[in-house]
Amino acid sequence: MVLLVYHRAAFGSSLHLGYSYYQAGAFPWMTHGFMGLTYPKPDVMLKLLFGCRRGLLFYGPVLAAAPFGLRLLWKNPSTAPIARASAAIATYYFLFNASFSAWHGAWSYGPRYMGAGVPLLAIGIAPVWSRAGSYLRAVLALLAVCGLGLSLMGVSTTAQPPNEFRCPALQLFWPSFSQGRFSLNQGSFLAPVEEVREEINLGELVGLHGLPSLIPLFVFWSIALSFWLSIGRNREAAC
What we know:
By secondary structure, the protein is mainly alpha-helical. It has two domains: 1-31, no CATH class; 38-160 and 168-186 and 194-229, no CATH class. The chain has helices spanning 2-11, 42-50, 56-59, 66-75, 80-99, 118-122, 125-131, 134-157, 168-178, 202-205, 215-238. The chain is globular, with a radius of gyration of 21 Å. The model has no long low-confidence stretch (mean pLDDT 89).
């Protein structure tokens, strides 16, 4: 409803899409099907799940446990609605992405058009963790750390790897991260296209360089983790 109201306010009709107002030829792939949408392609589905360029399970391997957790929630009448809604929304975005002509999402980290469905898919990890033994929890934790490491390398270097990188994690993120070359973005959505700007992170802002420039980020994470753990302890004490 909000989107329909926005379209009406911006374009004069709730059924007019913003993409239809781009200059002709600006996005050639939009001429395929309806605004670039056709049908889910099997090869694209595999690349979106397992590919080194945009694979969801490559960048977030712990999500492999999510379908099993959603199944557990589905079998419980009290949590079945949550499981159905989460599975439906995550599946929708997956099929949407696999149906789009520009499925790779241009300069982006991971499967760009699946991003809105990932948090709901992640709900399925919780019941798997709750029922897992020590060995499986260790595996889940390792997978989560791998995904966290890739995410850290991506956001500290650039979350917009150019299209020429077929495997950004190996060709761009890791080489740049290991050499301490951070904040590689040179553009801004808020500045004119002609203006080239040097991006910096918070550590670089206070004079740190290389890996030490990530210290403020780790400090923030430590504070957030301590706060989160304290909430858990308070809830256990209340029970």
